Every structure is written in C-alpha cells, then in structure tokens.
C-alpha cells in the first residue's frame, strides 16, 4: 500500500436490536450484522467485499458512509474521525463519498430527467454553480459514462437497465468523489451488459483515481475489479488478502468453498475440477453458532472451533485469516 | 424410443397496449429421454416463454401456436383439465423463486403429498412416508419433523430443495428448471445443482435447464440451445458450443464472462449496445446492431437456422445448427 490510507476502519460494528415481546417478557435479540471489522483503504485502491446473503457486506458498505444508525467503532477519513463530525460537517464530507446501487431503475427518481438526476449532487454541494456550467459538466459526464449527451432531457424509464446503471454511476462521479461504494452494481444486469459496466468503473478509476469498495457475491467479477478482497461470514471477517493471493492461496475453508463453488464456463474444466460442497445453509444471524460461526458447515471443524472464536491472524503480506486450522 | 418432448415451430405472442409482441418465433427443440439440455439467453430472449407455453402457463394475454408433443402426444392448446394429467406427474417445472411457487398457507407436507394423492392415488399416510423419504434424499435435515413446517420456516436453499423434491416425487419423464439457482448463494447453488444432477440421472429424467449462467450449463448439460430476441441462434453439443461457438452472439457471451480461471486482462471483452426491443425488430438479423462481424446482408435478410458441418459438427448430423450468414466464425 502506498501513502497514508484514505479510509481507516477500526472495530466497526453495526448491531440491530430486534423487537422483543412485551407479553412473554422476552427481551429483543441483537442481530450483529457487522461485528468488529477493521481495514484500511488506500487512495485509488479497490477493496472487494464478498460473502453470501446476510453476511453483512451491504451493511458494512453503508456503515462506512455513515448511512446507518447505531454504528460503533472508528471510521477515520484522511486522518479525521467521522464520528466526531457534526451533521453539517458530515454533510459536506459526503461530496467526497458516493454510492452506486444494485437495482439501477429503483435508484433513480422516475419523475426527474436524466440531466436533473445527474446534476443533483452539483445542486446540493455547489449551489452557486451557474446553470450553463452545470449543464456542460453533466453532458461531459454523460459522454464519459457512455451515454448520449443529447438524451439529457429523457426520463429513466426510457433507458435499459445497463444505461440506468450508467446514469447512477454518472450521478456518483459528477463531484469527482474520493470514494465510491458499489453495492452489487452489476448483479441485476444481463451477462453481456455486466462486462460493459465493469469496464466503465475500471476506466473511471484510472481517470479519476477514486477508491472503491466493490460489494458483490460474484467472485469472478470481484477478481477482475478488486485489488484486495475481504471475505465476510455472518458479519465477521473470515479472510482478507491481495487479490492474487486470495484466489491462488485461499486459507479459510469458507473462502475455499466459495471459490470452488463458482462454475467455470468450460465443460471439461468444470466437470473435472475438485469440488468442496458445503453442508447445510447459513445459520440464523440472530443465533450464530458459538466459537467460529462457520463451524456448522466447515469440513475441518473440531471441538476447539466450538469453544473459541478464531482471531484474525496475520500470515504474510497483509494476508489475514480467522481460522484455527488454516495451516492444515 | 420416442423423444420426451418435441417442440416444432413454436410461436408465442403477447397482446400489449402498444400492440402485439412476438416473444418467441419458430422455436424447435427435441429432448430425448434422460438428456440434459441447457437453454441460454438474456432477459427478453424468450427462453422462459418457450417452456411456459409448453406447460400451458402463459400469461392470460399470451397466445401460443405451433406444436408441442409430449411423448408423442400433442399438448399445445389442450385445456387445463387434460394438462393436469401430465403436469406434476410426468412433466414438472421448478421456478427461480421458491417462495412464490410454494403456497404460504399450507405445510410442506400438504404441498408434497398432494401430487401423490392426486396422481398416484396414494393414501395420505403412504404419501407422507414417500414425501419424507424424498426430503431426506434432497438433504433436508430432520425431514420427518420439518415436513410439518410452513414454507416461511425454511431458508431459501431449503425451500428450493423442497421444490426439487416436489418436482421429482412422481418420477416425471421431464423436469423443466427455470433459473433454479439464480436466487441462491453460490455454495447453496452448488448443492442444488449436484442434487438435481444426481436425482435426474438416477431416475432417467430428462432435464431442461433454463439459465443465463454459462458456467452452470457447462457443468450439467449435454446439449445447449442459445436464444436471442425470441429465436434460436445456435444449438449443439455442450463441448462444441463452448469450445467452438459458431454464432457471434454465443462467442461474445462466452468472451464477456469474467472467469476465475482466465488471465486477468485490463478490459473484459464486451458485446456493445443493448438487447433489442422486440417491438422494433427490423427485417434482418436481430443481433446485427451489436455484431462485430456484421455484413450488409445481415441488416436486410434474416438468417435461417441451418445445420452446419465442418469443425464442431456432430458426427450424427443432428443438433449442430446456427442462424447466421457467416460460413465460419
């Protein structure tokens, strides 16, 4: 990693308190959606967050942007603790941090034109910008994301899913943010369109140098986009490593299972490859197993895994893994 | 032996406020007993509509024409009462979202035993035993107890496993699975696919797998049919399609998938442009606008699906076809 981090996250937790039952005198349970997650993000770096539904990857992405209540832990942005900022100061910071959502059409206001949607962050953060300048900026950004600038007065429903995602990306990029959180940006798109959007995000990163947190359940896509990858399981970090290290040398049995479960579009390789099929489903996050949360599905689990939670152990070159048996 | 399913010149049209939409045009497919066929295409390619028409489940504004023969017997356009003799017993279908296919008000037991009581005239007790047995085979833990649960008490993976159990209870000759694992996580997807392969192979059930995921097709299917804008663009044996695609769309689709086993390039290959609007199709090839090998002829003359020879053709001559003016890709 080069230079001081853009973002430094320490022991970040997001706990949701579920409603209890007054009648049966049951206290509400606590759902630990994200539990003691720490990482650094360098300028221009992309961190991939992977894991299955319910592992807390989207919650983590939103917690970093402080879009959720009940966040514990520290998020340090260029040396400044975001939790200590008042609302107004935080609002100004948001200009530098943006988010792109999964469902492109749902993320756009159907009653606003494309030009209004993309210009909205400009109106919010630079209200004194003259209209002509703002329009020119919007049109340049539209061209930059592969939209036709003359379509500036059209409405979202006139565009396809892939084009709507380009609109969402243009809106996120218009203020040239330092961080963009991409929450499953290609999952709702057709295969032939996914590659277009992945290329676009990588081109924009080369051009503007922003950092990205790329959330996805698709390990093949993440491998293309991310420099480093964090694997989450029930809200906790199972493993974090550089991209090549993680795919070549996964140490956590969960990472190994995830990678082996990804189908390869080649009949010979796909049928010949060794498979590690996990038993059962994700346990309820309300009642996670004791010790290591993964032990109920883990082929390597021993009694130790039920008794003690494995700490995140540093291996080499920033590779860290939370497993008692990573070396077996 | 007769083919399990023979679809010939199938057309599906939908009446919409903006006029008629031709969702499926002249699709033909033969499925042999015990065979696994993958149907690949993007949203709007018509891949699901073909099989909703086969099952007699088209939306009320949809109309199908052509021919669908199930074990030699014409079933297209038959009334629901006649189709119900076949559906669920000899031919069943699994959908993407198990929650919308299961009745939330009924226990898993009621929903599983219904097919056996109706089609096999079993007693409730015998049907329950058979259903528990099937749930165990799809690896539902504590099947004997869980069978009394309601769908909401099952996880997504368990619901889809229950759907697989329900679809295979009567040992149908044909199972149609429409994106059966798209809503599931990868580790659960791997479980369900392994299970479907094992169970259909054991019972010699023919399997039609509708999916956008080429990786899933590569692992499971014997033959592949690729659809684009309501038409078949290429068919062939799975290894031919993946190793020697002959239609530019198939080739583009394969090249644009990021893969775990590929070298990392700075750019993914893409298919430029967007899928076409079915209401505004021109006279030529629907893929012409996005095709890297487009010729003048492609824009005016629609290529017919034709048998191809040369490298990539199957020796028995059947099944290797494409709809493209190019001689070779």
What are the main properties of this structure?
heterodimer; A: 328 residues; alpha/beta; eight-stranded mixed beta sheet; four-stranded antiparallel beta sheet; 11 helices; B: 329 residues; Rossmann fold; 2 domains; 12 strands
Tell me briefly what this model is:
The complex is a heterodimer of chains A (328) and B (329). Chain A has helices at residues 57-64, 87-93, 114-125, 131-144, 161-173, 191-208, 219-225, 243-248, 253-261, 267-272, 303-307; strands spanning 7-17, 30-41, 46-50, 71-77, 80-81, 97-100, 179-183, 211-215, 228-233, 236-242, 313-314, 320-321.
Structural category of chain B? alpha/beta
Order of helices and strands of chain B: EEEHEEHEHHHHHEHEHEEHHHEE
- Assembly type: heterodimer
Using CB atoms under 8 Å apart, which protein chain pair has the greatest interface?
A: A-B, 46 and 48 residues
Distance between the termini of chain B: 35 Å
How would a textbook summarize the main sheet of chain B? 8 strands, mixed
What is the strand arrangement across the widest sheet of chain A?
6-7-8-3-9-10-12-11
Query: Structural class of the secondary structure composition of chain A?
Result: alpha/beta
Give the C-alpha Rg of chain A: 21 Å
User: What fraction of the residues of chain B are assigned to beta strands by DSSP?
Assistant: 15-25%
């Amino acid at each position: 990693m080069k230079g001081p981090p853009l973002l430094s996250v320490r022991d970040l937790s997001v706990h949701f308190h579920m409603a209890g039952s007054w009648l049966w005198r049951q206290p509400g349970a606590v759902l630990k959606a994200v539990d003691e997650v720490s990482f650094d993000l360098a300028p221009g770096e992309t961190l991939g967050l992977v894991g299955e539904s319910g592992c807390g990857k989207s919650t983590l992405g939103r917690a970093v942007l402080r879009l959720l209540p009940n966040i514990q832990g520290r998020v340090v942005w260029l040396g400044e603790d975001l939790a200590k900022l008042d609302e107004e100061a935080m609002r100004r910071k948001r200009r530098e941090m943006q988010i792109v959502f999964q469902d492109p059409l749902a993320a756009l206001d159907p009653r606003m034109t494309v030009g209004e949607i993309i210009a909205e962050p400009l109106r919010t953060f630079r209200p004194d910008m003259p209209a002509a300048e703002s329009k020119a900026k919007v049109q340049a950004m539209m061209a930059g994301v592969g939209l036709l600038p003359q379509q500036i007065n059209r409405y979202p429903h006139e565009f396809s899913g892939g084009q709507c995602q380009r609109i969402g990306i243009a809106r996120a990029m218009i203020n040239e943010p330092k961080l963009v959180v991409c929450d499953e940006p290609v999952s709702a798109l057709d295969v032939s369109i996914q590659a277009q959007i992945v290329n676009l995000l990588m081109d924009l990163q080369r051009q503007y140098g922003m950092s990205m947190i790329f959330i996805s359940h698709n390990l093949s896509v993440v491998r293309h986009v991310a420099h480093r990858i964090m694997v989450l399981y029930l809200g906790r970090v199972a493993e974090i490593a550089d991209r090549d290290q993680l795919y070549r040398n996964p140490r956590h049995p969960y990472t190994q299972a995830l990678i082996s479960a990804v189908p390869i579009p080649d009949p010979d390789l796909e049928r010949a490859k060794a498979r590690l099929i996990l038993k059962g489903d994700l346990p309820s996050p309300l009642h996670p197993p004791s010790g290591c949360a993964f032990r109920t599905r883990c082929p390597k689990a021993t009694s130790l895994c039920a008794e003690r939670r494995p700490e995140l152990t540093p291996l080499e070159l920033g590779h860290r893994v939370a497993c008692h048996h990573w070396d077996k | 032996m007769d083919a399990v399913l023979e679809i010939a010149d199938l057309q599906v049209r939908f009446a919409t406020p903006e006029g008629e939409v031709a969702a499926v045009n002249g699709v033909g497919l033969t499925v042999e007993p015990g065979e696994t066929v993958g149907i690949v295409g993007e949203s709007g390619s018509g891949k699901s509509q073909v099989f909703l028409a086969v099952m007699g489940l088209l939306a009320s504004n949809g109309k199908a024409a052509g021919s669908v023969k199930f074990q030699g017997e014409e079933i297209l356009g038959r009334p629901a009462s006649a189709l119900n003799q076949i559906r669920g017993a000899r031919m069943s279908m699994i959908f993407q979202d198990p929650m919308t296919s299961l009745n939330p008000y009924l226990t898993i037991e009621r929903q599983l035993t219904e097919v056996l009581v109706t089609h096999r005239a079993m007693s409730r007790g015998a049907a329950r035993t058979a259903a528990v047995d099937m749930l165990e085979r799809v690896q539902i833990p504590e099947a004997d107890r869980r069978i009394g649960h309601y769908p909401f008490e099952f996880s997504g993976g368990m619901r889809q496993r229950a759907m697989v159990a329900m679809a295979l209870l009567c040992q149908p000759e044909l199972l149609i699975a429409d994106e059966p694992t798209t809503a599931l996580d990868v580790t659960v997807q791997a479980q369900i696919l392994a299970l479907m392969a094992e169970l259909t192979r054991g019972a010699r059930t023919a399997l039609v797998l509708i999916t956008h995921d080429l990786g899933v097709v590569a692992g499971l299917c014997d033959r592949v049919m690729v659809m684009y804008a309501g038409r078949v663009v290429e068919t062939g044996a799975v290894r031919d399609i993946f190793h020697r695609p002959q239609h530019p769309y198939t080739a583009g689709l394969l090249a644009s998938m990021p893969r775990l086993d590929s070298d990392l390039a700075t750019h993914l290959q893409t298919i430029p442009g967007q899928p076409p609007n079915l209401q505004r199709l021109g006279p030529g090839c629907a893929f012409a606008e996005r095709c890297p090998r487009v010729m003048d002829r492609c824009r005016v003359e629609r290529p017919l699906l034709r048998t191809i020879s040369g490298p990539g053709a199957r020796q028995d001559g059947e099944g290797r076809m494409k709809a493209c003016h190019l001689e070779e890709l």
